[in-house]
Amino acid sequence: MYFYIYDNSVNSHLNFMIKRIILTPFQKFVKIESLSGILLFSATLIAMIWANSGFSDSYNSLWQYKIGIGSETFQLTKPLILWINDGLMALFFFLIGLEIKRELLIGELNGFRKAMFPLFAAIGGMIFPLLLFLFLNDSPQTAQGWGIPMATDIAFSLAILKLLGDRVPLSLKIFLTAFAIVDDLGAVMVIAIFYSGGVDWLLISYALIPLLILSFLGYKGIYSKYWTVILGIIIWVLFLKSGIHPTIAGVLVAFTVPIRQKVDMHYFKENLSKIMTGIAQSNNENVPVLSNEQIGHMDDLEDLTDKFTSPLQKLEHRLHGWVAYFIMPIFALANAGVVFGSNMELNSSLMLNIALALFFGKLVGVTLLSWLGVKLKIAVLPEDINFLQISGIAILAGVGFTMSIFIANLAFASNLIFIDSAKVGILIGSVVSGLVGYLVLRWSGEKEKGQ
User: Partners of 69 in the beta sheet?
Assistant: First the structure.
């Protein structure tokens, strides 16, 4: 989606500039997340091969290597894997917070009827896997893992949809994205409420001070990346020391970033036209360097685009590549290295329960609640989507991976056997869900074309 301007002779230049500036975020989102899914798969494969090779000791020792800072009054030292899971993943959750805020204000969740369809799907996709896991679970020791099958990995899911090309309509990709974002919000709340330790409320009250400052600045439409970084780090440290998982700080800080631009479309078009006209009239075409006049125009253009770009959208755009191409693959590399062998200890019941809850829980929950929302006339099924395709997406939602592994680490932090069992269950459930979901959506797409 982009805007056309029919003001003067520089139309083509303006259209080119605006296409680059106002490209729909969803197109970029799908492209980035699809490639991220491939990188996640590659990192997972490397981690499993590395952990089961002759260099397995180096794999384990690398992630357990302690790094930190300390003094007589302050100590912050952690193994590398916890810097990834608590630190880098806070940026992952920060991005999730930005996406949730955008969707709630101007995206697929900003209207009641628009939001109800993915909302019903997300509720079903969280509740039914949870209930199925608890129903199948027969040990109080593993009951804490009920949150593991609730999550959907949007990167892997969109990567699989990408393989289907035009066999699936764009609205189906939007549906998956919207309900996965709601699913992420649910997972964040579950982590904050149920998977945080004993809370030091005094430290939380201290953390509220910089959070309120950022909230006030955001409310006034004032954004400074330096203050956001400095106060964000302070909030993260206070959350870390308080007992609430520090990644939640990432979500809360994201909610303080303003979404509104400093200038509106009319101001932008009017001034962009003047700048482009000035550049076009500059007589410096055969010289490889810019004139002082052209440099001035370029500075004006940079200042104008900075004012016109939403701070939230700008941050989301810049962070998406780092999260998708670096943070998530590093997380997979550090956490997916399950050691298989004859002496491997696994809790087969926990492993099977997670795999079944991911596949069948998501299938039943997403499909049934979506259908119920439409039947109750609270939600509307998009015209180019049928319930066979919704069922395919529901199966695909069983690809839990990133968030599921993250919750597994929190649920069974002191029990390596349970963590490994949960990871194997997540891998089995995710692989089966991905393959079956792909086949169902491929078949439904061919059926649609055949009609």
Answer: 76
For residue 254, give the H/E element and its range: helix 247-255
Closest to 154 in 3D by CA, of 187, 127, 131, 132: 187
- Mean pLDDT, residues 70-80: 80
Candidates 437, 436, 428, 370; CA nearest to 404 is 428
pLDDT for 184 beyond 70: yes
Residue 75's H or E segment, with its range, is strand 75-79
Give the model's pLDDT for residue 230: 95
CA dist., res. 18 & res. 25, Å (int): 14
Distance CA 399, CA 154 (A): 8
User: What domains can be seen in the chain, in order of their start residue?
Assistant: 23-196+245-261+309-444 (1.20.1530.10), 265-304 (no CATH)
The answer to whether the pTM exceeds 0.90 is no
Instruction: Report the C-alpha gap between 420 and 66 in whole angstroms.
Output: 22
Crossing angle of helices 112-136 and 387-396, rounded to 10°: 50
- The rounded distance, in Å, linking the Cα atoms of 201 and 244 is 10
Instruction: Give the C-alpha separation, 98 to 75, whole Å.
Output: 31
Task: List residues bridging with 143 in a β-sheet.
Answer: none
Q: Give, in order, the Cα–Cα distances in Å from 192 to each of 38, 147, 184, 351, 410.
A: 29, 12, 12, 24, 11
48, amino acid identity = M
Q: Which is more confident, 156 or 300?
A: 156
Q: Is the dihedral angle over the CA atoms 333, 334, 336, 340 positive or is it negative?
A: positive
Report how far residue 274's alpha carbon sits from residue 318's, in angstroms, rounded to the nearest whole number.
28
